[in-house]
Amino acid sequence: MIENKNTRVYMKSLLKIAFSFLVGGICILSACDDSDDNAISGFTLDTEIVTLDATGGTEVVKVASGTKWIAKVDQPWLQIMPANGVGATECKIVVDTTLSHDMRQATITFMPEGVAAKKVEVNQQGYNKSIGISIKEVEVPNMGKYGKRFFDVSVVSNVDFDINIATDATKKDWVEKPRYQVNLNQGARPRTTKLRFNWKMNTDPEERTAMVSFDAKEGEIESAVLKVIQEAAPEITDTRSGDSLALIIIQEKINTMAKWDTSEKMEYWRNVILWEKKDKEVKENPAMLGRVRSVGYTMISTKEELPEEVAKLTYLETLSFGSNTNTMLLFDLSLGTAVCELKHLKHLTIYAYGITKLPDELTKLGGTLESLDLSSNNFNSIPTILTPANFPKLTSLSLSGMRRYGSYSSLKTETRKEPGLMIDVSSNAFKNLLKWENLKVLNLSYNLLYGKLPANFYTFDAPIRKYTDEDINDPARGDTLKTAKDVLVGKVFRVLPNAIRVSMNLNFITGEIPDWVKYHPNLSKWDPFTLFFTQDIGYDKSGNLPGFTNEPANLDYYYELYPLNKPKLTEE
Fold this sequence. Notes:
By secondary structure, the chain is an alpha/beta fold.
């Protein structure tokens, strides 16, 4: 038992000695590691040059230093973190996105204690000048509602650019160049410019294309090119079925509120009249049979000129468009040229559409047009093409209701944009209408006419003459003028001699009623007290109250001169 006890004591002593050696070894190893840290001497960097692209970012530089150090940068567009330390350190170099096309450079200076400084060169590439687009090709339909005919393109660029459009179509402007401004307030950093391109409807039965090129204004930079493809329109043949197709397309383009039931025959469509076998014109030209003779569109909503399909209605005699919901919003709208191709057109009404001007091509209708109604549009002057020479067959002309705004208290102080047909009735522009001998109807009511009606026409270009004995004895006039011979011959100007209705009421005309009005052979037919003598309330351009100073109390004086025109009493 004693031997076993001694053995146990001996073994414990050996374990204590072994543990002591183990602890001592660990301490020695630890001492060796500490000595390695302390052994870093001098100052080293793992790189001397750092390069980044234009977008910037982060790079790492490894620093080994036996002493304390600090780092400084010479440009504000980069940072060093940390900017000081000792021993082994990983430093992050953070670089901002550049705003320049050119490369830029900065220097980081590391300054350790007691050791020479070292530098790291930082280079950042600039942005290459470029133009990019979000789409390379787009397809559009041949037609669509107003306000929906567009496509959008995003242009990413760091340079200003022009837009150039080339097309293989006859109508070169069917893709409209948008208004835009490239914002380069962040230098060479690419910016996105969102553009909206409007397109016009295709009336040709052929597909058409346009190449939209985005070209840098300066420098040799590759252009971005967008291809636009528009589908072909349905072919409108010169037939009865072609007429029906044209009518439907026109209806869609101007967005009429009342639609035709296309399941019904065309002759049952509202406001559509076809040429019939009994018509004299059809007997002379059988090809007209069943074709559209007359059509009227009302309650429409458009901001565009008459659709081009109007020209496809070959045998159209009467055409009417009226009541556009946008009429008061339009300040620059032409009638368009489609209607000018209608070789059989006699009667044209464009009522409250919003047009402000007529095309010169309208004179093509001079050989056929008999009546023209342009009432309630937005003309600010009488179109210069409206002359007897251009329209020798015209017998009815209406230019009434040319008022953009509801009320006018004073023309003298009126400052609103393009208020309406505001002209001096003593001007040549107005006098030109008065020498239109063939006119039977002239309607100028409810405009902004002002001034005094001309009393003589001696100084007028191509002056209007006075009545002569030949006029009195004209068999076409019967005995109507003979009773007024003494008043007319050599005394009264022969103004609008064939007019059976002249209306100028609700304007701002002042002064005296001239003799050519008072003694006009057809004055009683004008309903003068309602449609001529009655003027608007307010003030004219000179601040005068509208109205005639010599308005007669009745027409007794007139019936004494023209007893044949006096109304006859009838038995009830």
